[in-house]
Amino acid sequence: MNSIFLNNTKTYSFSTRDELIDFALQEKKILVAINAEKILKNDEKLKKIINENVGYTDGVGAVWAMKQKGFKQTIKIPGVELWLTIVKKFENSKSFYFVGSSDEVINSTIEKLKLNFPNLKILNFRNGFIRTDEEREALKNDIVAKKPDVVFIAMGTPKQEFLMDELHTAHPALYQGLGGSFDVYSGKVKRAPKIFIKLGVEWLYRLLKEPTRFKRQLVLIKFFLRFLIGKI
Fold it and tell me: With DSSP H G I counted as helix, E B as strand and the rest as coil, what are the percentages for the chain, rounded to 5?
């Protein structure tokens, strides 16, 4: 598969979602959403995990950078949509395990999944608040025992990537980090209107809804400036 390093972050170029899903499933890898923030993030442990797995272009900045490097067919693949594409594609053939968010959100997510995908094989699920080594070990042992084909972890970066890496070592499968996707799917958090999504500025909608994110979004300015001078 075509890939390149963006600021030492290995990122793959995919022209369709199916291309990404089939490759990741065959390799039994961890899917990591790549955006401007992750590309510029100075976290060697996180970069090592990304570079050993499958980083895909979740953010418009990552797509721009890939196209600037010559990968003209690269498309934006939002993680908040990708996991549901995987569920729909393998509802009748794969088994699933879900970890993330609060009890309220994960319970609502599972209830909605059962309604929308009645044939979905859900092996187990739990919230994303793993506070002790005992809880972590119990989760790992349960995944090893149940052997799911697909594991979704929604805890936010880099916590979810660190956990997926540990779990993947114990039980190779297709893993995907989902951030706040369960909150969106359950209806607790509203996703940006379609016009923001179409224009590739979901980050702006989130900033307008949560002005406290301003400091975090400053990385986008840094990314854009480096992109303009070809330093990504």
Answer: 55, 15, 30
